[in-house]
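Problem 12. The chain below contains 213 residues. Write out its predicted structure in token notation.
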Amino acid sequence: MRIPNHIGIIPDGNRRWAVAKGLTKEKGYDLGIDPGLILFKLCQKAGVKELTYYGFTTDNTKRPTDQRIAFTDACINAVKILSKEDAELLVIGNDSSPMFPKELLPYTTRKTFGKGGIKINFLVNYGWEWDLNHIKTGNQEEKGVTNHIKSSDISRVDLIIRWGGRRRLSGFLPVQSIYADFYVIDDYWPDFKDEHFFKALDWYNEQDVTLGG
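Solution.
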């Protein structure tokens, strides 16, 4: 089986899951932490070299305060849990904003934990405009556009998996996602199952990946 080198994860549907369970919307975020760890271990075992989680965006911070606190705390806890694994961890986002959790500032340069190995990127207070607004004019053919974006340490994404049924990227790494295959799972992220991951890999294995060639 052809395994993607880099998988992007959009873990959507937390609020809708909570409402369906009769809970307030903010209760759905904490239930997304365990699926993230399970998915990490599945990717690690499969031989995936890089994994990027979509934590929260700059637009998400416009939500009600209780929800913002809940998804921020979930991201902090998730990163701290992943820092106990064998991984090379990086948090990417607008860290000059007060919406960026100070607890994650030490992770804004890539650090190796345990034995290292798989690269883990966590997008926190990330915005596509923030990422791209430092692109410089000039000889882009020589230097390459990716040298001028904030997320330049993140490689091209091969496969993006989105939970929650939505068919959109929501600003997820626009440069790195340019040739990514996009697989959508209708189940909400808190209802994550191992089979979601394996079905996505099976689907990816059947795609004709030419990168335009």
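Discussion. The chain has one domain: 6-205. Students who got a different answer should revisit the alignment rule from Section 12.3.
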